[in-house]
User: Fold this.
Amino acid sequence: MKVTVLIRPKQGILDPQGEAVEGSLRKLGFDVHGVRVGRVVDFELADDTDARARVERMCAELLANPLIESFEIELHDA
Amino acid sequence: MKVTVLIRPKQGILDPQGEAVEGSLRKLGFDVHGVRVGRVVDFELADDTDARARVERMCAELLANPLIESFEIELHDA
Assistant:
């Protein structure tokens, strides 16, 4: 099963990378605001059993820092 | 308009971060393979006119490295 996990800084958490990107985009003339930078992790899960629960454990144990990041799990069948 | 851009290493391009994450997940007992790590960038675009074309320019000029990364643009109305 193909899995995509989106990991984003939580609301209210400072995001220096997002601020840097916003500054650069504005200097290039793009009128943007609220830029936030997170990570996208794609992988194949060998076994489909309890896929969502297992990916949640992966997020909690390694992929995300639950104190400052939220995550969103997408399971793609086939 | 809210915009989400997903930036991923292109197929065939080495992804050391993905390899490191895969190694760590396997050590934790998760049977995963093909781990790839990219970025997700969320922002607000002040003006909706030609939104997709402008976000494509942002990707080409700053957000992604088109030589080694592909990008996917999601425009969210309202």
